[in-house]
Specification:
By secondary structure, the protein is α+β, with helices and mostly antiparallel strands. The protein has helices at 10-23, 28-40, 50-57, 72-79, 130-134, 159-165, 174-180, 183-194, 201-209, 219-230, 236-244, 247-251, 271-285, 305-313, 318-321, 335-349, 354-366, 380-390, 394-403, 410-434, 445-452, 458-474, 479-491, and strands at 45-48, 64-68, 85-90, 95-100, 103-109, 114-116, 121-123, 145-148, 152-154, 167-168, 198-199, 287-291, 295-300, 323-324, 330-331. The protein contains 23 helices and 15 strands. It has a seven-stranded mixed beta sheet with strand order 3-4-5-2-1-8-9. Strands 6-7 form a two-stranded antiparallel ribbon. The chain has a two-stranded parallel ribbon with strand order 10-11. Strand 6 and strand 7 (121-123) form a beta hairpin. The longest helix has 25 residues, at 410-434.
């Protein structure tokens, strides 16, 4: 991906424009067609924002964002006979969506909003000038436009120069921009990771100054922006910016809390930096994976939100559980259980869905289990429990556990890797032998009720769990032995004599 040259002159600009237009070639006929449609009706139309920025970067945007002088009803009237289909994306805010073939367009009326900065709700006001619309955009590199159909380049805020410098600047002052929409501060962090840019000093200063304004933004919008950041190819710079500016104190305080003060004897590693490294290493393991002795194994396709959240949050229980021992050293007993509870609370507050919360917290609970494996002295029963406790999360648990090794001691790192290779080999062997993906007691609920002469209810549930534990401890024993074990268990229960 080639960046524009810094401070492009007139000659450079013409070259860059040709390159950008060339990158737009697959959709250029469609853009010019819709541009002629609007100008023929007496309206202006321009490609704006991300698609223009990405054309200069040689990147491909998903949807095509356009802005126009036409009001939303007129947008819809013009598009209906031309597009395959149209829909209302937010008529009150001036946006109509349309599909033409494989292309998706979002067309919005020029905006010149005024904001109630106590609630962050805009008083929607449509404008009649492209320049007024561009000044209300988040960053200068997103405030560039191409008028259609003639592809006239509009850049009133030097967005191309900022793009060449790889620097995020705002069209208005940063204070005004972030006061209008505090979520733009999180967006700055996301662009840091997504585009490989840095924020200008005055932008970072405004983020620090206005960080507490993020409390005005809905949890759902904050969550969505955090997800977009985590799913980039390199989320660490953006997360670091959130912590350095104090934004994380508002929306994810558990992350900066990992910056534990290191004692003078350095008896534990920097948990914050460790967590960011684990996240990076987990991302590196997404996709095709080979285990020595096994060959290609089941991959976790990336970007995987559950794995990345678990990697980032796996140690958030450490600050609450840190203890300095009398004999030296430091302990974090049960930090995986405390961390799972903290993660559940935070993810709920950020309005994550139940399945994501359940999966992330289960991985955090299990991320230390491997360290009891040692030199491979686990029984088959312990390996079975590792498999069944992780369930469908097993492949993710493999990656999280491997990523959790950040030691600089190469010998120790190699030993841990080889030990986990051994565990994965045993897991595959047991799965092939016993089909543990669908492990069940050898008697079903009806058979248990018949053997014990009991009705469905809590007692039958306890009996089922006992047989499942017996199955995990002893492997397949057959229905006859399972029934005998069930009777032995039942004889010790208080309900048996009733």
């Amino acid at each position: 991906m080639q960046s524009p040259s810094p401070d492009p002159g007139p000659d450079d600009l013409s070259v860059l424009l040709r390159r950008a237009v060339s990158h737009l070639a697959p959709v250029l006929p469609l853009l010019q067609e819709v541009g002629q449609l609007f100008t023929g009706a007496g309206h202006e139309l321009a490609l704006v924002g991300g698609p223009v920025r990405d054309a200069f970067l040689g990147r491909t945007s998903g949807d095509l964002d356009l802005t126009t002088s036409a009001p939303p009803d007129e947008i819809e009237r013009l598009l209906k006979p031309w597009a395959s289909t149209t829909w209302d994306l937010g008529r009150a805010f001036g946006t109509i969506g349309a599909r033409k073939g494989d292309a998706v367009l979002e067309i919005t009326t020029y905006r010149a909003d005024a904001y109630d900065r106590t609630s962050r709700k805009p008083q929607v006001r449509f404008g009649d000038r492209l320049e007024d619309d561009l000044v209300r955009r988040d960053f200068t590199m997103n405030a560039m436009a191409m008028r259609l159909p003639d592809l006239e380049f509009i850049d009133p805020h030097d967005g191309l120069a900022a793009l060449a410098e790889r620097t995020l600047r705002t069209p208005a002052t940063p204070t005004e921009s972030f006061a209008d929409d505090p979520l733009r501060m999180m967006r700055a962090a996301r662009f840091t990771s997504q585009l490989g840019v840095q924020v200008a000093p005055e932008v970072q200063a405004a983020m620090r100054e206005l960080a507490d304004r993020l409390t005005m933004v809905s949890a759902e919008r904050v969550r969505d922006e955090l997800v977009k950041l985590l799913l980039t190819s390199a989320p660490r710079p953006g997360l670091t910016l959130l912590v350095d500016t104090g934004l994380s104190d508002i929306m994810l305080p558990e992350l900066p809390a990992l910056q534990l003060e290191i004692d003078e004897h350095h008896r534990h590693k920097d948990v914050y930096q460790h967590s960011l490294t684990v996240l990076e290493q987990a991302i590196d393991l997404e996709g095709p994976r080979v285990v020595p002795g096994l060959g290609t194994v089941e991959p976790v396709d990336g970007p995987d939100l559950v794995l990345r959240l678990a990697a980032l949050l796996h140690d958030i229980g450490k600050p609450a559980t840190r203890r300095f021992e009398r004999a030296g050293g430091v302990s974090f007993h049960h930090h995986e259980l405390v961390g799972a509870k903290l993660a559940r609370k935070r993810l709920r507050e950020l309005r994550f869905d139940k399945d994501t919360i359940k999966a992330v917290t289960k991985l955090i609970e299990l991320h230390l289990r491997f360290h009891g494996y040692g030199d491979g002295e686990w029984t088959d029963s312990a390996v079975r429990r590792y498999i069944t406790d992780s369930g469908p999360l097993l492949s993710r648990l493999h990656l999280l556990t491997r990523s959790d090794c950040t030691t600089r001691n190469r010998r120790k790192a190699t030993l841990l890797s080889q030990t986990y290779d051994s565990l994965e080999t045993r897991i595959v062997a047991l799965q092939e032998q016993e089909e543990l993906d669908a492990v069940r007691p050898e008697l079903n609920g009806n058979q248990i009720a018949e053997v014990l002469g009991i009705a469905p209810g809590p007692v039958l549930g306890r009996a089922y769990k006992h047989l499942l534990a017996h199955r995990l401890d002893n492997g397949p024993v057959g229905e006859q032995e399972a029934a005998a074990e069930l009777r032995r268990w039942w004889a010790q229960q208080p309900e048996a004599g009733k």
